[in-house]
Amino acid sequence: MILRAVAYPAHPQKGIIRTVARENPCLACGACCAFFRVSFYWGETTDSPEGTVPAHLTENITPFVRAMKGTDRKQPHCVALEGDVGQTVRCHIYENRPSPCRDFAVDFVDGQVVASPEDHERCSRARARYNLLPIEVDTMKTIIENKRR
Ligand code: SF4
Ligand code: SF4
Fold first, then answer.
1. Distance between CA 18 and CA 50 in Å, rounded?
2. Atom of ligand 1 nearest to the CA of 115
3. How far is the CA of 94 from the centre of ligand 2 (A)?
4. Each residue of 123-137: pLDDT tens digit?
5. Residue of the nearest CA to atom 5 in ligand 2?
6. Most exposed among 8, 73, 127, 138, judged by the fewest C-beta atoms under 10 Å?
7. Beta bridge partners of 18
8. DSSP alpha helices (H): ranges in the chain?
9. Whose CA is closest to atom 2 on ligand 2?
10. Could you read off the pLDDT of 69-94 as tens digits, one per residue?
């Protein structure tokens, strides 16, 4: 989900995938924001005193679960995603995006895309919907670090 510029939380037990990239591929993608349902605990929204996700951009799934508007449908497209998928995109609530977006383990760090195998697979599925190649094919080379212990 629109890559984070933060340190990647390691998944040492499952290994990580590193892909050398010229630039952050998410900024020209956005496929995952227009592929998955993005749902989370209602307390993350501004309807709660501690919440930060703008409540008016969410909808009820259950009394306790919200989804980003536009993502609970057959062909999801998050209401917060600006631009055209596969072209130039931006999350206009990036600083206040919900936990599923923050936790999506695909990051761009020091010229490398760093991903957990699970989220790399999700990323590839989302990109395929929009005829975008998986990151490692689309960029220069892939180094798979097998850190299974
Ligand atoms: S589908 Fe992958 S490359 Fe595209 S925005 Fe999401 S994490 Fe980034
Ligand atoms: S809130 Fe932002 S990062 Fe999360 S799905 Fe929507 S556009 Fe993507």
1. 35
2. 7
3. 7
4. 999 999 999 999 875
5. 33
6. 73
7. 114, 143
8. 99-103, 117-129, 135-138
9. 91
10. 999 999 999 999 999 999 999 999 99
